[in-house]
Amino acid sequence: MQTEPSFSADVDAYIAGFPLEVQTILQRVRETIRKAAPTAEETFKYQLPTYYLNGNLVHFGAFAKHVGFYPDPSGIEAFKDELSGYRMAKGSVQFPLDKPVPYDLIRRIVKFRVAEAQANPPAKGKPKSRPR
Q: Edge to edge, what strands does the sheet with 56-62 contain?
């Protein structure tokens, strides 16, 4: 088990590719996730910042008009009432860039996903896909 947080140069580069005001939001999302999942491995997967703990934990990314947050379908389902004001899909939610980002809600969803990951470690001999 990893005890120190890992930092990804790919995530740094990804965030640096956006306008300053979007960088600020992405850095705060990153910080929120890292505080809620301090032992998760930070990597870059699916062209998005990704956090890994016994499997993919969450991903996030910036788009033209929103920040996409991908906490797996279980994370969306568990918080669907609180997320109902946002555009959602099975495993994702969009937070518009022109409205306040719900960092506390992101924190709670990540903590929920951490608890899931810790309760369901990968079966021995069948490792879940590892970050590249």
A: 41-45, 48-52, 56-62, 66-70, 92-96, 87-89
Using one digit for the tens of pLDDT, what is the confidence trace for 47-57? 899 999 999 99
In which residue are the tokens 């740094």 written? 12
Specify the higher pLDDT residue, 4 or 56: 56
Residue 13 CB burial class (10 angstroms; 0-12, 13-18, ≥19): exposed
Q: What's the gap between Cα 1 and its chain centre?
A: 19
SS (H, E, C) 90-103: CCEEEEECCCCCCH
- Per residue in 90-110, pLDDT (tens digit) is 999 999 999 999 999 999 999
Give the whole-angstrom CA distance, residue 9 versus residue 108. Answer: 26
pLDDT confidence band for 123 (50 / 70 / 90): low
Transcribe 30-97 into DSSP letters.
HHHHHHHSTTSEEEEETTEEEEESSSEEEEEEE-SSEEEEE-HHHHHHHTHHHHTTSEEETTEEEEET
φ and ψ at 127, to 5 degrees? -65, 140
